[in-house]
Design a protein that fits this description.
By secondary structure, the chain is mostly helical. The protein folds into 3 domains: 119 residues, no CATH class; 104 residues, Type II secretion system (T2SS), domain F (Receptor-associated Protein), CATH 1.20.81.30; 65 residues. Helix content is 84%, strand content 0%. It is built from 12 helices and no strands. Helix 4 packs across helix 5 and helix 10 crosses helix 11. The longest helix is centred in the N-terminal third of the chain and has 43 residues. The N and C termini lie far apart (68 Å).
Length: 299
């Protein structure tokens, strides 16, 4: 009878968790719908960062919401099931642990696709120097600017090739080349690309040697790239220290847990222990973000 009542109590926990998950899913759906409407409006006004620098470039909004909800419920339900088999009957422990597992399950897909979008934007930005060099070489060989752009798009790889194919397609449909490249900048903003587009637009409108202008822009982009790489190398130690300081308490907790199990068990078996863990995690996240903001130098 005692085990039956315990199962009934955990069944209530699962129902409450499902209801909370459903409410969170509806709330997130509303927030993301509003965000997508704002993004679409800004894209129409040519002031948005576009979809290429957004996680929805890799996955649909509805699919992402379903993945978040499924993973959150899976982690929380699996954790509650594990606690049932471990005969943990303290409800004050189960509720915050299940809520934390559900939150992690909801946040993991968003973080994963955000990282993919960030890496894609970085790869695109690192390819702008190659684009400038390719256009300069093509113009020196006697090609027109659209022809040089098309020839270079066949040789390059990655996000730059994808974006250039869109530019060439729009140009063939009647859009001016400078305008098509400006639309590429609206999809995935990059300061070096903006310099290149401005130089092409001004040279096309006012006349002059396109090759000489692109050579100067290439030297400027090369200097900016070297400066950013040097700055990234100088701040690498700070980023590593932020990560090391954030992971140090977790590593210490795991070591102490395996060395002296009886000493650390109250941390995971009492409400005060879980409150201490929650406060520790919050302080670690704040400290990590503060250090990253210090070493993240905008130029």
């Amino acid at each position: 009878m005692a085990s039956l009542s315990l199962l009934q109590r955990y069944g209530v926990y699962l129902l409450v968790l499902f209801a909370v998950a459903l409410l969170v899913y509806i709330l997130i759906s509303l927030i993301q719908s509003f965000s997508m409407e704002q993004a679409d409006r800004k894209i129409r006004e040519n002031r948005s960062e576009g979809m290429a620098n957004n996680i929805y470039f890799f996955i649909g909004r509805a699919t992402l919401q379903q993945l978040q909800l499924s993973l959150g419920i899976l982690l929380a339900g699996g954790l509650i099931t594990t606690l049932i088999f471990c005969q943990v009957s303290e409800s004050l422990i189960i509720v915050p642990v299940a809520a934390l597992a559900f939150f992690l399950g909801m946040a993991a897909p968003w973080f994963y696709f955000s990282q993919k979008a960030r890496r894609r934007a970085e790869r695109f930005e690192n390819s702008i120097l190659d684009l400038s060099l390719g256009l300069t070489s093509g113009l020196r060989a006697g090609q027109a600017l659209p022809q040089a752009l098309e020839v270079f798009s066949r040789r390059c790889e990655g996000p730059l090739k994808e974006e250039l194919m869109i530019v060439i397609r729009e140009y063939r449909l009647g859009l001016e080349l400078a305008e098509a490249m400006q639309r590429m900048y609206n999809r995935i903003p990059c300061e070096d690309l903006q310099l290149l587009i401005i130089s092409i637009r001004l040279t096309t409108q006012s006349g002059g040697s396109m090759v000489e202008v692109l050579e100067k822009i290439t030297r400027m982009i090369r200097g900016r790239t070297e400066f950013h790489q040097k700055l990234k190398a100088l701040t690498a130690q700070g980023r590593f220290e932020a990560l090391a300081m954030a992971l140090a308490p977790l590593v210490a907790f795991l070591l102490l847990f395996f060395i002296n199990n009886d000493l650390m068990l109250p941390m995971v078996q009492t409400l005060i222990g879980w409150c201490a863990i929650g406060a520790m995690l919050a302080l670690e996240v704040i400290g990590y973000l503060v250090i990253r903001s210090i070493v993240d130098i905008k130029v």
